[in-house]
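Slide 14.
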Amino acid sequence: MNNFQYKNPTKILFGKDQIANIKNEIPTGAKVLMTYGGGSIKKNGIYEQVKEALKDFELVEFGGIPANPEYEILLEALKVIKEEKIDFILAVGGGSIIDGTKFLSGAAYYEGDTPWNLLTDRKPVTKGLPFGSVLTLPATGSEMNSGAVVSRREIKEKLAMGGPGLFPQFSVLDPTVIKSIPKRQLANGIADAFTHVLEQYMTYSVGAKLQDRFAESILQTLIEVAPKIIEDTSDYEAASNFMWSCTMALNGLIQQGVPTDWAIHAMGHELTALYGIDHARTLAIITASHYKYNFETKKEKLAQFAERVFEVKFGTEEEKALIAIEKTNEFFESLGIATKLSDYTEEFEGTAQHISKKFEERGWKAIGEHQALKPSDVEKIVEMSY
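Slide 15: predicted structure.
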């Protein structure tokens, strides 16, 4: 097991009726900015619950943050933060709203002229405006980590940022919100969390037995509850396990002491930037191709995955590893998620070359757990996904 240091300061309020308790988590007298998306929270009752909980605070609202939070829109919210002298931000929504709020948290204290540099400089953000979240769509784990991804449509970029200053102070996880989530978004959330685990697990062994089993248990749980929650969103037990699995998939715990990959995400972000494909679906597009291309360095873990998660009992290591890739694709497809780029766009020719060029321009010349994948490798992997 590799050396590690781990600290997660986010307080979790899990279960029914927890939204009412946010009043106890925000500093008395704080001026609060509530951020949210397209308005679904006004249809499912969450908006009213949050407003009631914050009735004793001075509250300013900023809605309209889109999926794949857009830089230009976030700049409008940043202007509100500065003009209104906001003390605390409350993100009410899914990962995109929380990610956008993290950007706002860091940008509020940014001293340069161009906050986009928070993403291009790739330096840890050590200080941010305090914020919390009310999670409405389990998927990204953003409610309990310090990472965020922001898009900039005008230049077709989607970049990540993070740092110890961007942890939520608290996050409310109420599984009853799942009742109002469309099946497409539920499928996306399951696939997103599943791939988050794979990015931290499907590398190579360093003898971290507990981390492996943590990861495998999350994968097993997602596989078990997926059909239940898609069939019946009011199944509270399934919803609870789904929601907590998504949070545990990316709160930093399972990546401690082990090598991590994240190449699938790096390539997937480019597909979203180019075509607007849902984030989770871009991951499903890339996963099998990535594993096939890097088969020799991943086959040990792939075989372990097959044995422990999919209960494949027979075959050689290579045979089990190939079955693991096949079953992963089958799992995505069981959620209604197509796994080829051509299923999403007819204009896929040249995509691989465009992405490899982007990687070259950014200096991303060594990605993956071995830091061995060059832009030319990325090009081949993306071509395999057509």
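Speaker note: The chain is about 45% helix and 10% strand.
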